[in-house]
């Protein structure tokens, strides 16, 4: 079971990025994928979770209306679309997965498999 996040980069404030989380060794049909981020000098925070059972659950108010997640099961990939980027979105973004639906409260220990992270840098 492996996850690989990609798609990060340097973008100006107001711009957009689409991150990808490619899964191998399992299919996404029965998995929940959580997106986390860790800003410089801060603890990692849960952003949202997507699953085939229940759609998307947001855990960070600051991203509502700007972040959306979708899955392409044929490609075994989950995407995180980030719009209207702000400098405070600068962080390493991680995807994590586990069997089942999304938790009611997001926490790292819920997810057993993690990707390596991809850096998003937003310039002002």
How would you describe the overall organization of this protein?
The protein is built from no helices and eleven strands. The relative contact order is 0.33. With 124 residues, the chain is an all-beta fold. Helices cover 0% and strands 52% of the residues. The protein is globular. It has strands at residues 2-6, 9-12, 17-24, 31-38, 45-51, 55-58, 67-72, 77-82, 91-99, 113-114, 118-123. The strands form two sheets. Strands 2, 4, 5, 6, 9, 10 and 11 form a seven-stranded mixed beta sheet that branches. Strands 1-3-8-7 form a four-stranded antiparallel beta sheet, with no helix packed on it.
Itemize the secondary structure elements and their pairings.
Elements: E1 2-6, E2 9-12, E3 17-24, E4 31-38, E5 45-51, E6 55-58, E7 67-72, E8 77-82, E9 91-99, E10 113-114, E11 118-123
Parallel strand pairs: 2-11
Antiparallel strand pairs: 1-3, 3-8, 4-5, 4-9, 5-6, 7-8, 9-10, 9-11
Count of DSSP E strands? Answer: 11
Helicity level: under 10%
User: What about the largest sheet?
Assistant: 7 strands, mixed
How would you sum up the global shape? globular
What is the gist of this entry?
With 124 residues, the chain is mainly beta. It is 0% helix and 52% strand.
Core attributes:
52% strand; globular; 7-stranded mixed β-sheet; 124 residues; mainly beta; 4-stranded antiparallel β-sheet
């Amino acid at each position: 079971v492996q996850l690989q996040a990609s798609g990060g980069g340097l973008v100006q404030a107001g711009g957009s990025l689409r991150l990808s989380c490619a899964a191998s060794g399992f299919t996404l049909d029965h998995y929940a994928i959580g997106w986390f981020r860790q800003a410089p000098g801060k603890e990692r925070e849960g952003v949202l979770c997507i699953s085939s059972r229940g759609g998307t659950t947001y855990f960070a108010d600051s991203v509502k209306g700007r972040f959306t997640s979708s899955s392409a099961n044929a490609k075994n990939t989950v995407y995180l679309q980030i719009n209207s980027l702000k400098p405070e979105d600068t962080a390493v973004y991680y995807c994590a997965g586990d069997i089942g639906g999304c938790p009611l409260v997001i926490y790292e220990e819920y997810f057993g498999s993690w990707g390596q992270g991809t850096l998003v840098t937003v310039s002002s």
